[in-house]
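Reviewers of the previous submission asked for a worked example of the structure-prediction workflow described in the proposal, so we include one complete record here. The input consisted solely of the amino acid sequence. No template or homolog information was supplied to the procedure at any stage.
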Amino acid sequence: MRQSLFRAAFASALMLSAAGCSTVADETTSVAASDALAATIASPIRTPANVARDPYRHPAETLAFFGVEPDDVVVEIWPGGGWYTEILAPYLAAGGGRLYAAAADWGLGGIKKLKESNPAVYGNLATADFPAFDASATRVPAGSADVVLTFRNVHNWRMGYRRDDKQDYSAEAFRQAYAMLKPGGVLGVVDHRLPESASDERERTSGYIKVSTVRRLAEAAGFKLAASSEINANPRDTTDWANGVWTLPPSFALKDQDRAKYASIGESDRMTLKFVKPR
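From that input alone, the workflow returned the following structure tokens.
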């Protein structure tokens, strides 16, 4: 039903556009997309533990900021347990879009569980290797994506996470993200924000990363910064924890030690950056 309503809104928008009312058409499409996203976020199929984190992750505002439309081809890099996948997969399926989950095989366990638990919703979710270092790897087709999203992952690439040699492969990760996108496509980045005054070495140990580092990596790959947002900011996070960002929820690295204190701080202070691949 939601899909038919959404398609009807798009049809109305197209007719208005043909009549020369492009602004009205854009607004109609935007409202339809916003309503579809709100309905998906409110869906009972979402895991209750994931819903509980909405106040920290602001999914509606974040996806709207990145301009994710229901008929887009979207790549979610390193989706982990599928927190955003639970929103993106049904949202895109209802609007005629497509979702890729891009990760190494070891990082797709959560996605496999989602597909097995609810084939009707997640069965058509495509997977691809990321980063793809092998010529035989399954890649997202070059120039096919409207939006590439990565949530709290750039610091892992910088730290050489999941590489035996622990070498920084963040530059290559951004180059591969760039290749996936159509000209004019969007790369959306959310990550734990390290103050610019902090030591560069803390990017290799704390789980936080500087905005300037993310910008440098993205711009070196060819991206242009289009906008930034404080949607996911948390001024209570001082970022100087002995156990890094994992001290805070949801990780609680110290377990029950000072748990109430860290719970009151909440999840990390995060940058939200929107990059564009030039046309």
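The two ends are 36 Å apart (CA to CA). We consider this example representative of the routine output the project will generate in years two and three.
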